[in-house]
Structure formats: C-alpha cells, structure tokens
Design brief:
TIM Barrel; 11 helices
C-alpha cells in the first residue's frame, strides 16, 4: 500500500525537494510558531533552539516564523540564535504586519476564535521597517521568503506587495509570499510582482479553497499549508488543551467538540496503523500527494516527533490508499469553526 520511509545510507538526512516559485526547499519545512510562549503553553528558549536545530538535522531546509509569534519578535530571535553557524543550510520564511511600532495604527479584522479579532498594518510606509526589525532578530542579511501575514482590510494588498517588491530589488528579500488570501487577491498581487508561495490553512480537517488552489497552479505559485496537523489534532494525541494554550480559544478544541472530532477521525488513525505510519505522518503524506508544489510546515517541540514528521516526505501512498482516505474524509464532519 505504501513504501516505507526508511532511507539508504547514501541518502543521509536529505529530504526530497520541491519548488516554491523559484525557491527550492525540502518537501516538508518546519514551523517555529510552537516555540514561543502563549502558543502551546510554556516553553523555554533552550528547548526551542534545540527543536530548530533538530529540524535542520532531520533535513528541513525551510524554517517558517513571523514577527507576530511571541512578544517583541521573540520567535524570530530564537530562530536567529538557533541558526548561528548554519544560516546557509536553510531558507528562512517570515511574515510581517503584527509587530507594530509605537504610533502605528492597528487595523482590526474578524476571526473565528474566541478573542474575535486580530489587527495588522500593511501600509507600505512601514514595510521596510518591519523587514529591518526581522533581519536584526533573525541575525541575517536577507529573508528568503517574506509574507504579509494577513491582508490589511484598510490597505490595498497591491500596495503592500509593491513595498515588498522594493525590498526584493534592494536585495533584502529574495522571494515574495502571500498568506491567508483569496484567489482574487493572489491574482492581483501577482500582477504587481511574482508570488513564490501562498500560505493557507490546509489539512485533513480544513479543506483548501478550490479556486485558490486552481489560481496558484495556473500562476505557478507554490502552496505552504500552515497548521497541516490541525494544530496538533491530527497527531491523534490531543485529549484536552491546558492553560496558556492558544487552542483554548479555538472552537474545534472545546471539550465536547474535541471528543466528537477525535471519535470521527478514528478511521484515519486506524488506517495510519495499517500502514505502519503515525497519524501525523499519514496526514502530512496525504497533503504532499495533493499537489507537487505543496510544502507543509509542521511544528513540534520534541526532536523525535520532528524527525518522525519530516520522514513523511519519503512516504508514498498508492491510489487505493488515497481513495480510502478521500472516502473517509468526505464522510467526516468536523465540529467547530476555524480561525478564518
């Protein structure tokens, strides 16, 4: 039904590669969001830095962060320290718009979590300042993939993209990305400057928007699923969420909804067992089979789990397995809303 994810001695730690626009990276990247306090509970910086280095050691060549993860650029700074002496091994992707300097007006927009809204500012006047702050935190001279974290509801996305295009011309940024956009926004932005990748929430329990997928394929834009393990749900190990965990605000992790969702995804976990895969590996392998230009960015704090997750880049699922999965997922109703 599937080949194993073992590697020959000649392969070493290298993972299969994929292309996001013109950026070649490992087929699975590493999402660093979980390494800042307030995301999945408390975590110390030493453990976080070990996790980033474990991802590199396991073959990840794309590390994803944001100026909005943790307070005062915490996540970018942690990633920067972890990559000391190893910067040239990886492409760094980061996002901007949440960490607003004093005096910059926040522009709120609604979301589906309990706290109700987030706020960004994508005014092109501020974009270079955002990038320079991220470069300092990351301890680097260039950002390989730079995304507006969310479209600003008060600023045309094309204006924000134009400011990033100036950073590309200046050599501070190598590739432009977009995050959490519609098909129409992608098309409009791409007309201003080529878009290498779009980040979207996409997993077994959060389908991607078909028009956006079709537009990305038409334009040659790569896809970077965030939360590809459903904020940890698809690992099959989440029975409850504790204090200091942002998932307490997520309707799908409400106690009753979480129990219902765990029951409904039991067939997926059962199939993973048949295939001698972890549920997380099956979820990631399924995503990789959806499109050749998909590069999910799972995150974990535990080196063993990081290595297990990244091993999914070598898993091949045959047509029968994919058909079984599609049948299971088509008949599975998920309880509770998502961020967007």
């Amino acid at each position: 039904m599937t080949n194993t994810h073992e590697r020959s001695p000649e392969q070493g730690r290298a993972l299969p590669t994929r292309t996001l626009g013109g950026l070649k990276v490992s087929a699975l990247g590493y999402g660093a969001m979980a390494l800042s306090p307030g995301m999945y509970g408390e975590v110390d910086d030493e453990r976080g830095e070990r996790a980033v280095r474990a991802a590199l050691d396991a073959g990840a060549t794309l590390i994803d962060t944001s100026d909005g993860y943790g307070a005062d650029g915490h996540n970018e700074q942690l990633v920067g320290r972890a990559l000391r002496g190893r910067r040239d091994e990886v492409a760094i992707a980061t996002k901007f718009g949440f960490r607003l300097p004093e005096g910059v007006e926040p522009h709120p927009f609604p979301i589906g979590y309990a706290f109700g809204e987030l706020a960004v500012n994508g005014d092109p006047r501020h974009v270079r300042g955002y990038a320079e702050a991220s470069l300092r935190g990351l301890e680097t001279d260039r950002i390989d993939l730079y995304y507006p974290h969310f479209p600003d509801p008060q600023v045309p996305l094309e204006d924000t993209v134009g400011a990033v295009a100036e950073l590309v011309e200046a050599g501070l940024v190598r590739h432009l990305g977009l995050s959490n956009v519609t098909a129409g926004q992608l098309r409009a932005a791409h007309a201003v400057h080529p878009v290498a990748a779009v980040q979207i929430e996409w997993s077994m329990w959060k389908p991607a928007e078909p028009e956006l997928l079709a537009t990305a394929r038409e334009l040659g834009v790569g896809l970077v699923p965030w939360s590809p393990l459903g904020a940890g749900f698809l690992t099959g190990t989440v029975g409850r969420v504790g204090e200091g965990d942002f998932r307490q605000n997520a309707p799908r992790f409400d106690a009753a909804n979480l129990k219902a969702n765990n029951d409904r995804f039991a067939p997926v976990r059962g199939l993973a067992g048949e295939l001698d895969l972890t549920p997380a590996q099956l979820a990631l392998a399924w995503l990789l089979h959806q499109d050749p230009n998909v590069v999910p960015i799972p995150g974990s704090r535990t080196p063993a789990h990081i290595e297990e997750n990244l091993a999914a880049a070598r898993v091949r699922l045959d047509a029968d397995v994919l058909a079984r999965l599609d049948g299971i997922l088509a008949g599975t109703q998920v309880e509770g809303g998502t961020l967007l």
